[in-house]
Amino acid sequence: SSILILNGPNLNMLGRREPGIYGRASLDDIRDACVQKATALGLSADFRQSNHEGELVGWIQEAAGRFDGIIINAAAYTHTSVALRDALLAVALPAIEVHLSNIHAREDFRRHSYLGPAVRGMVAGFGAQSYLLAIDAIAHILNETTD
Ligand code: DQA
């Protein structure tokens, strides 16, 4: 199986961006860890980042038929984007939402996710490890649907 791992705005600045909240790992570090984890579970992973909502919507639409599942850290678009939610609902692939930080322990506006109804579940608060936990979860979901 193959999974698409999507990253939203400002995540290209990880490592330099508010390291007290988001940690010292760069997005390249997280990509390497994700690819390694996915490979160990027999999955192939395509890891992408965009600062543009429409590009993310396009990637989700194109995932239909090409990928078996989606992991998404929509970053600030989590809290603003009906379009990303609708795209995830449209392709109907199993999807998991991830966040580096615990979005429930920060400003009130981060506590609401538009993606909530479009994903199987959410992992937040474990830094880069959130992505690896989400890969475990999606591997579990994909195994259930194949056996
Ligand atoms: C984030 C949390 C969001 O609230 C924020 O806008 C981000 C990153 C996280 O991974 O913790 O950019 O998605």
UniProtKB/TrEMBL annotation:
Substrate binds at N73, H79, D86, L100, S101, R110. The active site is at Y22 (proton acceptor), H99 (proton donor). Its EC number is 4.2.1.10. Keywords: Amino-acid biosynthesis, Aromatic amino acid biosynthesis, Lyase. Pathway: Metabolic intermediate biosynthesis; chorismate biosynthesis; chorismate from D-erythrose 4-phosphate and phosphoenolpyruvate: step 3/7. It is an enzyme of class 4 (lyase). The keyword Mitochondrion does not apply. GO terms for molecular function: 3-dehydroquinate dehydratase activity. The record marks R17 as: Transition state stabilizer. The keyword Amino-acid biosynthesis applies. Catalyzes a trans-dehydration via an enolate intermediate. Belongs to the type-II 3-dehydroquinase family. Homododecamer. This is 3-dehydroquinate dehydratase.
